[in-house]
Design a protein that fits this description.
Layout (H helix, E strand, L loop, with lengths): L1 E3 L24 E7 L5 E10 L5 E8 L6 E7 L7 E8 L8 E4 L4 E4 L4 E3 L7 E4 H13 L2 H7 L1 H17 L6 E7 L5 E2 L11 E6 L3 H7 L13 H9 L2 E6 L6 E10 L5 E8 L6 E7 L7 E8 L8 E4 L4 E4 L4 E3 L7 E4 H14 L11 H18 L5 E7 L5 E2 L11 E6 L3 H7 L9 H4 L1
Antiparallel strand pairs: 1-2, 2-3, 3-4, 4-5, 6-11, 6-13, 7-10, 7-12, 8-9, 8-11, 14-15, 15-16, 16-17, 18-23, 18-25, 19-22, 19-24, 20-21, 20-23
Length: 444
């Protein structure tokens, strides 16, 4: 860690320049700062960059010419996400060791096969690879070994044996799992097959506990918000409620509009929209107005005509979108909850994968990757124009997604709706396994 000199933050000049991840000629910002090893002045370099298929981060690197000490750190340049994220990677080949990994300081790292865990807030955030994480773990364990060998030789011997097991993982003689669980949602593991599904990588989103909110500093106590009374719900059904908030982009005062809407042949949903007059940023989100259904829902539509693009569609935040013909799967929470049309959903998918994808510009781009993503975008355009017939599958284990049946109340010949029983893993992801709704008052 380094300490920035006080004279660098005084006066009229600003320490930090206006830097952007979109500037290909961007140079790091250099700041003279104090070395905590020899207490001479060294140099800290800051760079705002973007992780492909992820988000912007701040990389900081310190080096001291006097004693040669150096270190690097990474911090998220965005806000804490609405949900936590858990990445589970099955490391099968040595190529998997080269996957880029962003590990926030709030993340827990586990290797179940070795019963090994790095607790949160015990390491600084880092931008590395899977192999780099293993090397960092080995370095951390080796750091105090000379002292242990003198004071506790038996313990030091056990740690030496464990270090050998960690080092042997890099040979990938057997598969092992790497789990990174981050309640802030700001950690990341690279998917080299993007935009297609990665069979070796599982990504799940989860709601934070009260204790995790307290650890992240976004909650001061564990008081739970009371549910709105019946009269308040009636008001929500008849009026658009407006809440004052701040724009997530520029931080200026903005307003969020909320309205309960009844979708015919389905249920009530809550639509929230935020508009910022300062920077023009606009967001909209849909939440289910009802409880989690007893069964999950899988909706499959055979898109055969351009008129299908006008079908109303509700994608909840727990819904996955699958297009088998394109070998494409969009995981739950990737686009959040949306109430739109089929055309609107496809355009959002194209924007997410092609237009806003950092892989198509800058140092992260390669000709092969750009061409592959461009072809994917062309196929989406053909679907919207009715030139390519596909099957669109909405798979929602919570049962809160909907696709309009234009033949209602008769059956739609091009659409099938299947109800299914959730697996234990799906119930765990939705937080239903530990939920008790009967007899809880007796225990109190």
């Amino acid at each position: 860690m380094s300490v920035i000199s006080e004279e660098n933050v005084r006066g009229g000049s600003s320490v930090f320049k206006d830097i952007s991840a979109d500037d290909e000629n961007l140079q790091p910002t250099e700041i003279e700062s104090l070395c905590m090893n020899c207490f001479q002045n060294g140099t800290t370099r800051l760079l705002l960059t973007r992780i492909p298929f992820f988000k912007e981060v701040i990389l900081s690197s310190f080096s001291c010419a006097a004693c040669g000490w150096a270190n690097t750190e990474i911090q998220s340049a965005g806000q804490i996400q609405e949900q936590g994220v858990c990445y589970t990677l099955r490391v099968r080949t040595k190529q998997d060791l080269n996957r880029e990994v962003v590990k926030a300081d709030s993340a827990t790292t586990r290797i179940p096969e070795l019963d090994f865990e790095i607790p949160p807030f015990t390491q600084k955030g880092s931008l590395s690879t899977v192999e780099g994480l293993l090397d960092r773990a080995v370095s951390g364990l080796e750091q105090e070994q000379p002292v242990r060998r003198a004071a506790e030789p038996a313990l030091a011997q056990k740690i030496d044996q464990f270090i050998l097991k960690l080092k042997k993982l890099k040979d990938v003689e057997q598969e092992f799992s790497l789990v990174i669980e981050d309640p802030s949602g700001n950690s990341f593991v690279e998917n080299p097959s993007a935009p297609h599904r990665d069979e070796a990588l599982t990504v799940t989103r989860f709601k934070r506990t009260v204790q995790q909110d307290v650890q992240l500093g976004i909650r001061a106590d564990d008081d739970l918000e009371e549910e709105p009374a019946g009269s308040d719900l009636e008001t929500m059904r008849n009026e658009v409620l407006v809440f004052n908030t701040n724009c997530p982009e520029c931080g200026a005062p903005a307003s969020t509009n909320m309205k309960l809407v009844n979708i015919p042949h389905f249920k009530e949903v809550i639509i929230m929209a935020t508009n910022c007059d300062g920077c023009g940023h606009r967001t909209n989100e849909v939440k289910s107005g009802g409880a989690t259904e007893e069964l999950g829902t899988r909706i499959s539509l055979h898109v055969t005509d351009p008129s299908d693009m006008t079908r109303d569609l509700l994608k909840s935040e727990t819904c996955s979108v699958i297009i088998p013909e394109l070998e494409f799967e969009l995981g739950m929470a990737a686009l959040g909850g949306k109430f739109t049309t089929l055309e609107g959903l496809l355009k959002d998918i194209k924007d997410l994968i092609v237009v806003k994808n950092p892989f198509v510009c800058g140092d992260s781009s390669t000709d092969d990757r750009v061409q592959k993503l461009a072809q994917f975008g062309e196929k989406i355009d053909k679907i919207v124009a009715g030139e390519l017939k596909i099957h669109l599958i909405l798979d929602d284990p919570a049962g809160n997604s909907y696709l309009q049946n234009v033949y209602a109340p008769e059956e739609d010949p091009e659409m099938t709706v299947e109800k299914y029983t959730r697996t234990f893993e799906q119930n765990e992801e939705l937080g239903l396994n530990d939920m008790k709704t009967e007899g809880y008052q007796e225990e109190n």
